[in-house]
Design brief:
It is a single chain. This protein is an alpha/beta fold. The protein has a seven-stranded mixed beta sheet. The protein is globular. The relative contact order is 0.24. The mean pLDDT is 89.
């Protein structure tokens, strides 16, 4: 596990961009943390690293937002509304096995659908409202290499 301290929104976007540049088709990232902890801000940077020009919005009300205009497609998912089930009906494995990168927020509600290899990123607030601690927990050799390169 690797921990990175970020002191502002810009650094969160820059780190997301760097991670995005290291990803390949079929990669799955799981983001967890409180509301407002920086998950969507990080995903904006990740999209930049995938050369996606679109404005990235939180998928809270849509469950899945798709962005296709980059080096790789980005599938941004918010599983919060699946707390009481329904994940198996969405065909998430089709996204996870696809030509794109999947980012899943609130993944504890779709744990049974996740592939064996993924990168978990835990967002933690600090006493300073602008500072965040990100913990990178790789599952699988590819993601161990991604974390090493950060």
């Amino acid at each position: 596990m690797k921990e990175i301290k970020l002191t502002d929104r810009k650094k969160t976007i820059e780190l997301g961009e760097k991670v995005g540049q290291l990803l390949k088709a079929g990669d799955v990232l799981v983001l967890d943390g409180d509301l407002g902890a920086g998950k969507t801000t990080f995903t904006k940077g990740l999209a930049k690293g995938l050369d996606i020009p679109d404005l990235i919005k939180s998928p809270t009300f849509t469950i899945i937002r798709e962005y296709h205009d980059g080096r790789l497609p980005l599938y941004h998912m918010d599983a919060y509304r699946l707390e009481n089930g329904g994940a198996e009906d969405l065909g998430l494995e089709e996204y996870f096995d696809s030509d794109g990168v999947s980012v899943v927020e609130w993944a504890q509600f779709v744990e049974d659908e996740l592939p064996a290899d993924f990168l978990a990123i835990h967002f933690k607030r600090t006493d300073d409202e602008n500072t965040r601690l990100l913990q990178f927990e790789p599952h699988g050799r590819h993601f161990e290499q991604v974390v090493t390169e950060l």
